UniProtKB/TrEMBL annotation:
Residues 1-16 have a biased composition (Polar residues). Keywords: Membrane, Transmembrane, Transmembrane helix. This is Uncharacterized protein. It comes from the Bacteria. The chain crosses the membrane at residues 84-104, 116-137, 157-179, 185-209. It comes from Mycetocola tolaasinivorans. Residues 1-62 are annotated as: Disordered. Residues 29-41 have a biased composition (Low complexity).
């Protein structure tokens, strides 16, 4: 057994003790180097500043978004600032629809939009904004349900509602200002039109405004509804193109000055139809030997076959005959 360099160090008795002492010596030599290192700044630390360290046995969490971008979205309680503005303006539009819009001072009579019996206005400025308001509320209060109106999302329906309400108020004010006497329109209409325009800025124009743009930029991507996806392109069918150029003639060759006799017209077979005659006409037997019956102005007769120059008729009793006189015949 070799003698250690330090005589003051106790002598190990076996190889197991020797291994323990060697490990202790290496740990003692490494401890000054660790203590001599300066503590790293938070910027040099690989862990993100402000993010709690994961405990032992805990799976690392992956953060896909930008923390600074999420913090820039202005919120008020459980709603974003844009949603709160839409709720306030849509509620104001709904409430102002019940306020008088026309006042006739001479007879002291006032009319609301619901009293004018003009159906599109209450729907445009009363019912639709109320439905959009409720959908925005329910989307935050009951988030586990995917609230939609058909194929429209809540924001799409709110945007359409704002456009309809603002256009309806502008058209209503312009038309009634021309049709009614001055002073009959009340203050309700300008205020309601202003709130409908604010609805427009908090829904339709919101993705383009710097104050609300971040809310839409931070949303995740989801597959579009099948009805909102691009349409399938329709392949054009190739058009038949005629062959131009010389090609062999078809048919029978005849000598010069010879004209073949015209062939008899082929019988035309069509579906049965009714015929009528204003005067009595004889209907002959199929062999042409005798007259079977007459068709006349008293009733219609069923034609079961059209041979071009004649008709095969069937009487009510089932007899079959041929009509050769086809002039001035009414066909039904």
């Amino acid at each position: 057994m070799s003698t250690p360099e330090n005589p003051a160090q106790p002598q190990p008795q076996d190889s197991a003790e020797t291994g323990v002492w060697e490990r202790l010596e290496r740990a003692a030599e490494a401890s000054p180097a660790v203590s001599a290192e300066a503590p790293r700044s938070p910027a040099e630390h690989p862990q993100t500043q402000g993010e709690p360290a994961s405990s032992v046995g805990e799976e690392p969490r992956v953060f896909t978004g930008s923390t600074s971008a999420v913090r820039r979205i202005p919120t008020v309680g459980i709603f974003t600032l844009r949603e709160l503005m839409f709720l306030i303006t849509s509620a104001a539009v709904v409430l102002l629809s019940f306020a008088p819009v026309i006042s006739i001072r001479q007879v002291r009579v006032s009319y609301t939009l619901w009293d004018l019996q003009f159906v599109p206005m209450p729907i445009a400025v009363g019912i639709l904004p109320l439905v959009a308001l409720l959908l925005v509320l329910l989307r935050r209060l009951v988030p586990r349900i995917n609230w939609r109106v058909g194929t429209l999302s809540v924001d799409q329906f709110a945007s359409i509602t704002a456009v309809i309400a603002s256009v309806s108020y502008i058209v209503f004010i312009g038309s009634y200002a021309l049709l009614t006497a001055p002073g009959q329109l009340t203050w309700t209409l300008p205020f309601a039109a202003m709130f409908s325009l604010l609805m427009l800025f908090s829904s339709t124009f919101a993705p383009y405004l710097p104050l609300y743009r971040t809310e839409f930029a931070e949303r995740g991507e989801v597959p579009a509804d099948p009805t909102a996806r691009p349409v399938i392109p329709i392949a054009r069918r190739p058009r038949p193109q005629g062959a131009w150029g010389p090609h062999p003639a078809e048919g029978t060759a005849y000598p010069a000055g010879y004209a073949p006799a015209a062939a008899a017209p082929a019988p035309t077979h069509v579906a049965p139809y009714w015929v009528y005659s204003f005067s009595p006409r004889p209907v002959y037997a199929p062999d042409g030997s005798a007259v079977l019956f007459e068709m006349g102005p008293t009733a219609w007769v069923l034609a079961v076959e059209d041979r071009g120059h004649s008709l095969v008729l069937r009487a009510d009793d089932g007899r079959i005959g041929i009509l050769y006189d086809l002039s001035n015949l009414t066909r039904g």
